[in-house]
Design brief:
Strand 20 and strand 21 form a beta hairpin. An eight-stranded mixed β-sheet has the order 5-7-2-15-12-13-14-23. A five-stranded mixed β-sheet has the order 10-18-17-16-11, sandwiched between helices. The protein has three domains: 171 residues, Aldehyde Oxidoreductase, domain 4 (2-Layer Sandwich), CATH 3.30.365; 189 residues, Aldehyde Oxidoreductase, domain 3 (Alpha-Beta Complex); 340 residues, Aldehyde oxidase/xanthine dehydrogenase, molybdopterin binding domain (Aldehyde Oxidoreductase, domain 4, 2-Layer Sandwich), CATH 3.30.365. Helix 10 crosses helix 11 and helix 18 packs parallel to helix 19. Helices cover 29% and strands 24% of the residues. It is of the alpha+beta class. The longest helix has 28 residues. The structure holds ligand MTE, pteridine-2,4(1H,3H)-dione and dioxothiomolybdenum(VI) ion.
């Protein structure tokens, strides 16, 4: 055995592979363009290419699809419709109301009717447009308002009540009430939906799929093929973005590719081009609100009554949990004693809306922020003062409307730190002064807080598994149930394992997420990926370390607890031995060098009937200040500076976490400003490409962007006391929206609440300015 006599410095207890700013595990491959996505995997000889034939009607019945021209089109090998599915024609995640192919009834423009398989991707796409369908049109609901008026819902309405909101509203000294409309959002992952189905012997199926949820893809494919799940294997090395859009809605693509591959006994790849992807798949739910908030002279809220109508689309998909999360985030960072909160999942003849970063949380929280913004202007006070007055605080003001007590509230100190570091008060004066001298260009400023609950609000999903292999050369391979979509989960899980085994990160590799390795995994979602899978991988690695410690301690006749692991070495009885040498010796002694690991988040419970319980493991906090300038003649605007402070607990990887905050901030800003979804009178989405749908670009990022992590330690025993970072920072750019509203309000000398809806496009900003000017002109 190679042994050194001197101890490496970091054996003295400072060895840490967690908490360090390691680059993303695939950063080099990303930059070189050599990271492998599904469409980059070398195609197997005989691979065919598929495209979907889509409905042109929003709501209609049909009896026949005339496929003559499709079949006659160049390169076409086969066309498959609903009746060609050997198993169940269903790809819905919870409630099974999503057919793979429409069967006699279409419910939105873009709904898949059939899959055409051809020699090339182009030939498949050309052929897919040639079907003739004998539609008989039915009346359609194209807006949430229309669905709500007809009480047409995909799920029963939900309601959370605490106290007596009606009575306290009636007694309230002041009321802020009104309506608000907030648009949806396309996930716009850079890699579109794609599945590559490869038949295996004896009707087994292997599917490479860009998905956040390999286990659900496995189940959906198995049901569609009429097979047991053990004959279906789904694998995902990485996605080029998911953002919630590949949580449930990768299923259609996996199932359609698998059904075609099974029928033809040839590999079939189904890759959506951008237009089809946007026409077919669901997005963030747009919301319509009617709010009525009672408050006292100091701006303290005494009661909230809120009705939210969601655009669910034609089927339930994840709308139930989305609406639940919306209701559970209406409080945001504020103590609301008396509430009456309702959510209605309007059934519309449009795409079935689904998960999108924040999962209804942003939509819930925006409503209370809007009301608070109204209150501040009405009282002539700074909105930050009203916010602080309503923050969760001491005992008596620390229980959420759904009954969870906060034991980790840091909103006061966090906001105070940001208020100082951003020079908020000084800049408020500067903005007022600027606006006093600038008749056309107006500046606006806002500070908004975030509190976001971490855990799946569907209890059983809070579990994860992992496998850790240590090979005889001391290298480590990790596999876990989480999927990589750019967020850095694999990097974090590698760090956790390297830390546990005391080896450098370079000694650890991660393999593709694979249903044959870890079974029954949850979607990588609800920001819980690193929390859950990090814990599971730690559990696995710990068992191996304990076995190695027991083994080497036995060799030296010392207690196992005295053995240390650090810097690629093992410290035992004053000796420093290379980890690889200990492993090699343990192998010869027949010690098991691999392990599984499992984690289930403790302490969660939820009663869906009363909408009360303890749905979250902990809360993540944050706040941001944004300063904008608008042109009151054109509605153009620019974000001049943004300061964001986010509570990632003891961050597992500050570089990745800061990247997540920056990305979420800009993505949320896009949602609230430039990204507008439009459907025409026939129900066709007209914004189905980047030519008509504007996501932020690098030039929309503020020149001055200051992102920092709030120094904190998770009160809850999360993985190394870190906190989730994936979704909560998407709420930080509320500050951009309210800064725009502040700039618009300056036109009316801050006396009128501008009726600004989201997205605050230039047109919407101009409309709000005109409304303010109208009221202001005697
Ligand atoms: N970051 C990147 N780069 N790409 C993504 O698709 N998805 C977000 C967030 N950050 C996403 C991302 C969403 S919706 C979630 S739920 C989390 O990452 C999931 O990953 P985590 O739980 O491992 O943080
Ligand atoms: N709940 C949740 C869920 O809070 N976030 C999710 O992403 C989710 N997905 C499915 C079911 N419940
Ligand atoms: Mo994220 S919306 O929970 O996939």
């Amino acid at each position: 055995m190679n042994s050194r006599t001197e101890l490496p410095a970091n054996l003295a207890g400072i060895w840490a592979e967690v908490g360090r700013a390691h680059p993303h595990e695939s950063a080099t491959l990303h930059v070189l363009g050599t990271a492998t996505y599904v469409d980059d995997v070398a195609e197997i000889h005989g691979t065919l290419h598929a495209a979907l034939g889509l409905s042109t009607q929003a709501h209609a019945t049909f009896t026949t699809i005339d496929l003559t021209d499709v079949k006659a089109s160049a390169g076409v090998v086969a066309v498959l419709v609903a009746t060609d599915i050997p198993g169940r024609n269903d790809c819905g995640p919870i409630i099974h109301d999503d057919p793979i192919f429409a069967d006699g009834l279409v419910q939105y423009v873009g709904q898949p009717l059939f899959v055409v398989v051809a020699d090339t991707h182009d030939n498949a796409r050309r052929a897919a447009r040639l079907a003739q369908v004998d539609y008989t049109a039915l009346p359609a609901h194209l807006t949430p308002e229309s669905a709500h008026a007809a009480q047409s819902y995909v799920l029963p309405p939900m309601r959370l009540q605490r106290g007596d909101a009606a009575a306290r509203l009636a007694q309230a000294p002041h009321r802020a009430s009104g309506t608000l409309s907030v648009g949806g959002q396309e996930q716009f992952y850079l890699e579109g939906q794609v599945a590559y189905a490869i038949p295996q012997e004896d009707r087994a199926m292997r599917v490479l799929c860009s998905t956040q949820h390999p286990s659900e893809m496995q189940q959906v494919v198995a049901h569609a093929l009429g097979l047991l799940a053990h004959r279906v294997n789904v694998e995902c090395r990485r996605m080029g973005g998911g953002f919630g859009g590949k949580e449930s809605q990768s299923a259609l693509w996996a199932a359609a590719a698998a059904v075609a591959a099974d029928k033809l006994k040839r590999p079939v790849k189904l890759r959506a081009d951008r237009d089809d992807d946007m026409l077919v798949t669901g997005k963030r739910h747009c919301f319509r609100y009617a709010y009525d908030v009672g408050y006292d002279d100091s701006g303290r809220i005494v009661a909230v009554k809120l009705e939210m109508v969601l655009r669910a689309g034609y089927s339930a998909d994840l709308s139930g949990p989305v609406a639940t999360r919306a209701i559970c985030h209406v409080d945001n960072a504020y103590y609301l004693s008396d509430v009456d909160l309702r959510a209605f999942c309007g059934k519309t003849n449009t795409q079935s809306n689904t998960a999108f970063r924040g999962f209804g949380g942003p939509q819930g929280a925006l409503a209370i922020e809007y009301a608070i913004d109204d209150i501040a202007r009405t009282l002539g006070m700074d909105a930050l003062d009203i916010r602080q007055r309503n923050f969760y605080a001491e005992a008596g003001r620390d229980v959420t409307p759904y009954g969870q007590q906060l034991d980790d509230n840091v909103i006061y100190p966090l906001v105070a730190e940001l208020e100082t570091s951003s020079a908020y008060r000084q800049r408020r004066d500067d903005v007022r002064a600027f606006n006093g001298t600038s008749p056309i260009l107006k500046k606006g400023l806002a500070l908004t807080p975030v509190k976001f609950g971490i855990a799946f609000n569907v209890n059983h999903l809070n579990q994860a598994g992992a496998l850790v292999h240590v090979y005889v050369d001391g290298s480590v391979l990790v596999n876990h149930g989480g999927t990589e979509m750019g967020q850095g989960i694999h990097t974090k899980v590698m760090q956790v394992v390297a830390h546990e085994l005391g080896v450098p990160l370079a000694q650890v590799q991660i393999s593709a997420t694979d249903t044959a390795k870890v079974a029954n995994t949850s979607a990588t979602a609800a920001s819980t990926g690193a929390d859950l899978n990090g814990k599971a991988a730690q559990h696995a690695a710990r068992q191996i370390r304990d076995r190695l410690a027991a083994f080497i301690a036995g060799q030296y006749d010392v207690p196992a607890a005295s053995v240390g692991f650090a810097d690629g070495s093992v410290l035992v009885a004053g000796q420093v031995i290379r980890f690889a040498d200990v492993v090699a010796k343990a192998y010869l002694a027949r010690v098991q060098l691999w392990s599984d690991g499992f984690y289930a988040t403790p302490g969660l419970h939820w009663d869906s009937a009363s909408m009360t319980g303890h749905p979250f493991s902990y809360f993540a906090y944050g706040a941001a200040v944004s300063e904008v300038i608008i042109d009151t003649l054109t509605g153009e605007w620019k974000l001049l500076r943004a300061d964001a402070l986010y509570d990632a607990g003891e961050s597992l990887n500050p570089a990745i976490d800061i990247g997540q905050v920056e990305g979420a901030f800009i993505q949320g800003m896009g949602w609230l400003t430039t990204e507008e979804l439009c459907w025409n009178k026939d129900g066709k989405l007209t914004t189905h490409a980047p030519s008509t749908y504007k996501i932020p670009t690098v030039s929309d990022c503020p020149d001055d962007f200051r992102v920092a992590l709030f120094k904190n330690r998770n009160v809850t025993d999360s993985i190394h006391r870190s906190k989730a970072v994936g979704e909560p920072p998407l709420l930080l750019p509320f500050s951009v929206f309210f800064a725009i509203r502040d700039a618009v309000a300056s036109v009316g000398d801050y006396r009128i609440n501008p009726p600004l809806n989201a997205p605050a496009t230039s047109e919407e900003i101009l409309k709000a300015i005109e409304a303010v000017q109208l009221v202001n002109t005697p």
